[in-house]
Amino acid sequence: MALTEAEIQKLSNVLLGKVMELSIRTKYVLVARAGIDVAEVPNVQDNAVVNPAIARAFAKLDIESKLRALPILADAIARISDDNRNDLTRLLGQHGYQYIDGTFVPVGLIDEREARHLPQTATAELTKAIGRLADNDESGAITAACGAVDATTTALYERHNLGEPGASFQAKVNTVINRLGVFDKLEQELREINIKPEDARKIREEMHEATKHAVEALQVIRRTNGDVHGTKPTYTRIVYDTIKWSSAICGLLEGE
Protein backbone atom coordinates (compact mmCIF):
# COMPACT_ATOMS: atom_id res chain seq x y z
CA MET A 1 0.00 0.00 0.00
CA ALA A 2 1.48 3.35 -1.07
CA LEU A 3 2.36 5.63 1.82
CA THR A 4 1.95 9.38 1.72
CA GLU A 5 4.76 11.66 2.82
CA ALA A 6 2.81 12.40 6.01
CA GLU A 7 2.50 8.66 6.74
CA ILE A 8 6.20 8.13 6.04
CA GLN A 9 7.02 10.89 8.50
CA LYS A 10 4.73 9.42 11.17
CA LEU A 11 6.17 5.92 10.77
CA SER A 12 9.75 7.19 10.72
CA ASN A 13 9.12 9.05 13.97
CA VAL A 14 7.88 5.84 15.60
CA LEU A 15 10.76 3.71 14.30
CA LEU A 16 13.50 6.23 14.97
CA GLY A 17 12.06 6.68 18.46
CA LYS A 18 12.60 2.96 19.03
CA VAL A 19 16.10 3.12 17.52
CA MET A 20 17.01 5.92 19.89
CA GLU A 21 16.26 3.66 22.89
CA LEU A 22 19.03 1.27 21.83
CA SER A 23 22.71 1.32 22.67
CA ILE A 24 24.83 3.63 20.54
CA ARG A 25 26.70 0.71 18.96
CA THR A 26 23.43 -1.00 17.99
CA LYS A 27 22.06 2.26 16.60
CA TYR A 28 25.02 2.66 14.27
CA VAL A 29 24.59 -0.87 12.91
CA LEU A 30 20.83 -0.57 12.39
CA VAL A 31 20.84 2.79 10.66
CA ALA A 32 23.71 1.75 8.39
CA ARG A 33 21.79 -1.37 7.33
CA ALA A 34 18.79 0.82 6.57
CA GLY A 35 20.85 2.92 4.17
CA ILE A 36 21.19 5.96 6.42
CA ASP A 37 24.55 7.69 5.99
CA VAL A 38 26.39 7.06 9.27
CA ALA A 39 29.08 9.50 8.18
CA GLU A 40 26.53 12.12 9.18
CA VAL A 41 26.51 10.72 12.74
CA PRO A 42 29.37 11.74 15.08
CA ASN A 43 31.32 8.81 16.52
CA VAL A 44 30.80 9.78 20.15
CA GLN A 45 29.26 8.03 23.16
CA ASP A 46 26.63 10.70 23.72
CA ASN A 47 22.97 10.09 22.93
CA ALA A 48 22.26 13.81 23.06
CA VAL A 49 24.55 14.19 20.04
CA VAL A 50 23.95 10.89 18.22
CA ASN A 51 20.14 10.81 18.26
CA PRO A 52 19.52 14.20 16.58
CA ALA A 53 22.25 13.37 14.03
CA ILE A 54 20.49 10.12 13.08
CA ALA A 55 17.18 11.97 12.67
CA ARG A 56 18.85 14.59 10.43
CA ALA A 57 20.55 11.91 8.33
CA PHE A 58 17.25 10.08 7.83
CA ALA A 59 15.52 13.33 6.88
CA LYS A 60 18.04 13.82 4.06
CA LEU A 61 17.00 10.56 2.37
CA ASP A 62 14.74 10.79 -0.67
CA ILE A 63 11.25 9.26 -0.51
CA GLU A 64 12.25 5.96 -2.15
CA SER A 65 15.17 5.54 0.23
CA LYS A 66 12.93 6.23 3.21
CA LEU A 67 10.42 3.63 1.99
CA ARG A 68 13.24 1.07 1.76
CA ALA A 69 14.62 2.04 5.16
CA LEU A 70 11.40 1.78 7.16
CA PRO A 71 10.80 -2.01 6.88
CA ILE A 72 14.53 -2.67 7.38
CA LEU A 73 14.39 -0.75 10.65
CA ALA A 74 11.14 -2.45 11.70
CA ASP A 75 12.56 -5.94 11.03
CA ALA A 76 15.81 -5.14 12.84
CA ILE A 77 14.02 -3.77 15.91
CA ALA A 78 11.67 -6.77 16.05
CA ARG A 79 14.59 -9.21 15.90
CA ILE A 80 16.34 -7.73 18.93
CA SER A 81 13.89 -9.21 21.44
CA ASP A 82 10.26 -10.16 21.99
CA ASP A 83 9.85 -7.10 24.21
CA ASN A 84 11.04 -4.83 21.41
CA ARG A 85 8.77 -6.55 18.91
CA ASN A 86 5.75 -6.26 21.20
CA ASP A 87 6.48 -2.63 22.01
CA LEU A 88 6.86 -1.79 18.33
CA THR A 89 3.55 -3.52 17.55
CA ARG A 90 1.86 -1.56 20.33
CA LEU A 91 3.32 1.77 19.20
CA LEU A 92 2.39 1.23 15.56
CA GLY A 93 -1.11 0.23 16.64
CA GLN A 94 -1.48 3.45 18.62
CA HIS A 95 -0.69 5.33 15.42
CA GLY A 96 -3.12 3.24 13.36
CA TYR A 97 -0.80 0.70 11.73
CA GLN A 98 0.15 -2.96 11.73
CA TYR A 99 3.44 -4.25 10.33
CA ILE A 100 2.79 -7.38 8.29
CA ASP A 101 5.39 -9.17 6.15
CA GLY A 102 7.35 -6.05 5.32
CA THR A 103 4.29 -3.86 4.76
CA PHE A 104 2.76 -1.16 6.97
CA VAL A 105 -0.98 -1.76 6.90
CA PRO A 106 -3.67 0.51 8.38
CA VAL A 107 -5.31 -1.12 11.40
CA GLY A 108 -8.77 -2.51 10.75
CA LEU A 109 -8.44 -3.05 7.01
CA ILE A 110 -6.65 -6.41 6.88
CA ASP A 111 -6.44 -8.02 10.29
CA GLU A 112 -2.94 -9.29 11.14
CA ARG A 113 -4.36 -12.74 11.90
CA GLU A 114 -5.94 -12.92 8.43
CA ALA A 115 -2.86 -11.50 6.70
CA ARG A 116 -0.75 -14.43 7.92
CA HIS A 117 -2.82 -16.72 5.69
CA LEU A 118 -2.29 -14.59 2.58
CA PRO A 119 0.68 -14.25 0.23
CA GLN A 120 2.70 -11.10 0.88
CA THR A 121 2.05 -10.11 -2.75
CA ALA A 122 -1.68 -9.87 -2.00
CA THR A 123 -1.84 -8.11 1.37
CA ALA A 124 -1.25 -4.53 0.25
CA GLU A 125 -3.67 -4.73 -2.69
CA LEU A 126 -6.44 -6.32 -0.62
CA THR A 127 -5.94 -3.67 2.05
CA LYS A 128 -6.20 -1.02 -0.64
CA ALA A 129 -9.38 -2.66 -1.97
CA ILE A 130 -11.11 -2.57 1.42
CA GLY A 131 -9.98 1.02 1.96
CA ARG A 132 -11.39 2.09 -1.40
CA LEU A 133 -14.68 0.33 -0.74
CA ALA A 134 -14.90 2.19 2.58
CA ASP A 135 -14.35 5.43 0.65
CA ASN A 136 -17.20 4.54 -1.76
CA ASP A 137 -14.75 3.98 -4.62
CA GLU A 138 -16.21 0.69 -5.90
CA SER A 139 -14.31 0.81 -9.19
CA GLY A 140 -11.00 1.31 -7.42
CA ALA A 141 -11.84 -1.48 -4.99
CA ILE A 142 -12.45 -3.95 -7.83
CA THR A 143 -9.21 -2.93 -9.55
CA ALA A 144 -7.21 -3.43 -6.34
CA ALA A 145 -8.90 -6.76 -5.46
CA CYS A 146 -8.20 -8.20 -8.90
CA GLY A 147 -4.72 -6.69 -8.67
CA ALA A 148 -4.06 -8.87 -5.61
CA VAL A 149 -4.76 -12.02 -7.65
CA ASP A 150 -2.74 -10.66 -10.58
CA ALA A 151 0.27 -9.89 -8.37
CA THR A 152 0.12 -13.30 -6.69
CA THR A 153 -0.17 -15.32 -9.91
CA THR A 154 2.51 -13.23 -11.69
CA ALA A 155 4.91 -13.84 -8.79
CA LEU A 156 4.24 -17.59 -9.02
CA TYR A 157 4.83 -17.56 -12.79
CA GLU A 158 8.24 -16.04 -12.13
CA ARG A 159 9.10 -18.24 -9.14
CA HIS A 160 8.24 -21.50 -10.92
CA ASN A 161 9.30 -20.52 -14.47
CA LEU A 162 5.82 -20.99 -15.89
CA GLY A 163 6.52 -18.79 -18.93
CA GLU A 164 4.82 -15.57 -19.94
CA PRO A 165 1.65 -14.92 -17.91
CA GLY A 166 -0.34 -13.48 -20.81
CA ALA A 167 -3.25 -11.09 -20.55
CA SER A 168 -6.10 -13.42 -19.54
CA PHE A 169 -6.88 -13.15 -15.84
CA GLN A 170 -8.71 -16.47 -15.78
CA ALA A 171 -6.01 -18.32 -17.74
CA LYS A 172 -3.29 -17.13 -15.36
CA VAL A 173 -5.10 -18.42 -12.28
CA ASN A 174 -6.01 -21.74 -13.89
CA THR A 175 -2.48 -22.28 -15.18
CA VAL A 176 -0.96 -21.67 -11.75
CA ILE A 177 -3.47 -23.97 -10.04
CA ASN A 178 -3.02 -26.78 -12.57
CA ARG A 179 0.75 -26.55 -13.11
CA LEU A 180 1.47 -26.42 -9.39
CA GLY A 181 -1.01 -29.17 -8.57
CA VAL A 182 -2.72 -27.04 -5.93
CA PHE A 183 -5.78 -29.27 -5.56
CA ASP A 184 -3.75 -32.48 -5.79
CA LYS A 185 -1.79 -31.27 -2.77
CA LEU A 186 -4.99 -30.27 -1.01
CA GLU A 187 -6.52 -33.72 -1.41
CA GLN A 188 -3.32 -35.44 -0.27
CA GLU A 189 -3.05 -33.26 2.83
CA LEU A 190 -6.68 -33.94 3.70
CA ARG A 191 -6.01 -37.68 3.55
CA GLU A 192 -2.92 -37.22 5.74
CA ILE A 193 -5.10 -35.83 8.52
CA ASN A 194 -7.32 -38.95 8.38
CA ILE A 195 -10.18 -37.60 6.29
CA LYS A 196 -11.72 -40.47 4.35
CA PRO A 197 -10.45 -40.68 0.75
CA GLU A 198 -13.93 -40.26 -0.72
CA ASP A 199 -14.56 -37.19 1.44
CA ALA A 200 -11.15 -35.73 0.59
CA ARG A 201 -11.91 -36.18 -3.11
CA LYS A 202 -15.35 -34.56 -2.71
CA ILE A 203 -13.88 -31.56 -0.86
CA ARG A 204 -11.22 -31.20 -3.55
CA GLU A 205 -13.80 -31.32 -6.37
CA GLU A 206 -16.17 -28.83 -4.74
CA MET A 207 -13.39 -26.38 -3.87
CA HIS A 208 -11.99 -26.62 -7.40
CA GLU A 209 -15.42 -25.89 -8.88
CA ALA A 210 -16.02 -23.01 -6.46
CA THR A 211 -12.63 -21.51 -7.31
CA LYS A 212 -13.28 -21.78 -11.06
CA HIS A 213 -16.63 -20.00 -10.65
CA ALA A 214 -15.06 -17.29 -8.46
CA VAL A 215 -12.32 -16.67 -11.04
CA GLU A 216 -14.88 -16.49 -13.86
CA ALA A 217 -16.96 -14.01 -11.87
CA LEU A 218 -13.91 -11.85 -11.12
CA GLN A 219 -12.96 -11.77 -14.79
CA VAL A 220 -16.43 -10.61 -15.83
CA ILE A 221 -16.69 -8.07 -13.00
CA ARG A 222 -13.29 -6.61 -13.88
CA ARG A 223 -14.13 -6.48 -17.60
CA THR A 224 -17.41 -4.63 -16.97
CA ASN A 225 -15.98 -2.36 -14.27
CA GLY A 226 -15.52 0.60 -16.61
CA ASP A 227 -19.14 0.41 -17.80
CA VAL A 228 -20.62 1.08 -14.36
CA HIS A 229 -21.97 4.55 -13.62
CA GLY A 230 -23.23 5.35 -10.16
CA THR A 231 -23.82 2.75 -7.47
CA LYS A 232 -26.53 0.68 -5.81
CA PRO A 233 -26.50 -1.37 -2.60
CA THR A 234 -26.47 -4.58 -4.66
CA TYR A 235 -23.36 -3.44 -6.54
CA THR A 236 -21.62 -2.50 -3.30
CA ARG A 237 -22.30 -6.02 -2.00
CA ILE A 238 -20.87 -7.48 -5.22
CA VAL A 239 -17.72 -5.39 -4.76
CA TYR A 240 -17.37 -6.67 -1.20
CA ASP A 241 -17.80 -10.25 -2.46
CA THR A 242 -15.18 -9.55 -5.12
CA ILE A 243 -12.67 -8.65 -2.42
CA LYS A 244 -13.46 -11.81 -0.46
CA TRP A 245 -13.25 -14.04 -3.54
CA SER A 246 -9.89 -12.51 -4.38
CA SER A 247 -8.74 -13.09 -0.81
CA ALA A 248 -9.87 -16.74 -0.96
CA ILE A 249 -8.02 -17.35 -4.25
CA CYS A 250 -4.84 -15.72 -2.93
CA GLY A 251 -5.12 -17.69 0.32
CA LEU A 252 -5.35 -20.90 -1.69
CA LEU A 253 -2.02 -20.02 -3.32
CA GLU A 254 -0.21 -19.10 -0.09
CA GLY A 255 2.93 -21.14 0.34
CA GLU A 256 3.24 -22.16 -3.32
Runs in which pLDDT lies below 50 for 5 or more consecutive residues are none
Question: Mind telling me which CATH architecture of the largest domain this is?
Answer: Up-down Bundle
Number of domains: 2
Coarse shape:
elongated
In what range is the share of β-strand residues? under 5%
Mean pLDDT, rounded to whole units? 86
Arrangement of strands in the largest sheet = 1-2
Give an overview in words:
The mean pLDDT is 86. The two termini are 23 Å apart. The chain has helices at residues 5-19, 24-33, 47-59, 63-80, 82-94, 112-115, 120-134, 138-159, 169-179, 182-192, 197-224, 233-252, and strands at residues 97-100, 103-106. By secondary structure, the protein is mostly helical. The protein is elongated and about 70 Å long. The protein has a two-stranded antiparallel ribbon. It has two domains: 5-107; 120-252, Four Helix Bundle (Hemerythrin (Met), subunit A) (Up-down Bundle), CATH 1.20.120. Helix 1 runs antiparallel to helix 5. The relative contact order is 0.09.
